[in-house]
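Why this split exists: single-chain examples teach little about how molecules sit against one another. For that reason, every record in the complexes split bundles all components of an assembly together and asks for one structure covering all of them. Below is a record exactly as it appears in the raw files.
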Amino acid sequence: SQTIHQWPATLVQPVGSPLSLECTVEGTSNPNLYWYRQAAGRGLQLLFYSIGIDQISSEVPQNLSASRPQDRQFILSSKKLLLSDSGFYLCAWSVPTRIYFGEGSWLTVV
Amino acid sequence: GENVEQHPSTLSVQEGDSAVIKCTYSDSASNYFPWYKQELGKRPQLIIDIRSNVGEKKDQRIAVTLNKTAKHFSLHITETQPEDSAVYFCAAGSDSGYSTLTFGKGTMLLVSP
């Protein structure tokens, strides 16, 4: 069966520091991969999606970026965090349409 | 782009009652409509989905209905139980090889014993 792992689970970062969240999927090949953000008490916002290695689309212009160095690995990065980047970040995968979420990463920017 | 409206934002029911959550969407090209349940501090879990070639789908105590003409779909939970308490999200998107879903803002369902 397919599993998705995401880390770290929680992190507290100062404003202006870099960010790296990682996600890997097991048990499937060539998955569609996604990064979502959920602000406190709000819905899910799609940040990036990828249909293959080096094929990444951005939905929201901001100071975040995503990379997919391997078929089942998806990384969310930032060079300089803003206070507004705080939230619950969720990696997800789909083959082809049903989306399944990872455990999530709680990011607090202070 | 797609816009999804979800109502109500909060819903309180007694155990055993039914609960209904409604969503509307704007893009007539959307043909895939999932529902997610998110317990506090946890990831959203897919509980049921429907595609636009189907008007209704049922899975035990939960059911989803879709009205393509009116562009709205609903989640129905019967015989609610305290463990049904959670935030429920609807979403709409295209079923075209990958999913760029647009989510509603969520409904907090509280089931009182």
